[in-house]
Specification:
Blueprint (H helix, E strand, L loop, with lengths): L2 H17 L11 H18 L3 E5 L1 H26 L3 H11 L3 H10 L6 H20 L3 H21 E5 L2 H8 L11
Helix pairs in contact: 1-3, 1-7, 3-4, 4-6, 5-6, 6-7
């Protein structure tokens, strides 16, 4: 088995695990008892989760989650493309997660209340740019190396940060800026 295939196997396994549907949540027996236990369970989880919070308004948190899901789809497309030596496909998919001025503004906006988050987010996008460069050079081994480095930035960011959904007054206090009046990060 080639080295490239051996490198792809764990990546594909991770992507497959991430793409599986979650089992349906058990039905609540009563709306009166479900809400307090759900809130206390969420509070208990939050206390156990020691990652640093990234304060976000609900619309921003939703936007960020949509971006994360699209990033995962782009990684899946990179893996599928490199498996068939489709370097144009690798470059196209990597370009979706690479740096752009708009992405830089989005990361800056999202990280306004979490010092250090923006820098880590921007590093991810710049790291992804190296996948595109390797694809342009038609260097399969380097594409895989840079994909591995990019995925490392993903895992380190997710290990360090968690979303903290806040209301507008809290957002204003934490960021020293007014809440956005239109779609966050657009």
């Amino acid at each position: 088995m080639s080295r490239a295939v051996l490198v792809l196997i764990p990546i594909v396994a991770v992507l497959a695990a991430c793409s599986r549907e979650s089992p349906p949540a058990p039905a609540a027996t009563s709306s009166v008892t479900a809400a307090p236990s759900a809130a206390s369970a969420a509070d208990a989880l939050d206390r156990m989760d020691t990652r640093a919070p990234v304060p976000l308004l609900p619309m921003m948190a939703n936007h960020q989650k949509q971006n994360m899901r699209d990033h995962l789809v782009a990684v899946q497309e990179i893996v599928a493309a490199i498996a068939t030596d489709d370097f144009a496909g690798v470059e196209r998919a990597a370009g979706r997660i690479g740096f752009s001025e708009q992405m830089g503004q989005t990361c800056t906006h999202m990280g306004a209340g979490a010092p250090g988050f923006t820098e880590q987010a921007l590093n991810f996008h710049h790291t992804a740019d190296r996948i595109s460069a390797a694809a342009r050079d038609r260097d399969r081994a380097r594409v895989l190396t840079e994909l591995g480095a990019t995925l490392q930035t993903c895992t380190s960011c997710h290990a360090a940060w968690k979303q903290q959904v806040v209301d507008e007054p809290t957002w204003t206090r934490l960021t020293s800026s007014a809440p956005p009046t239109h779609g966050a990060g657009h």
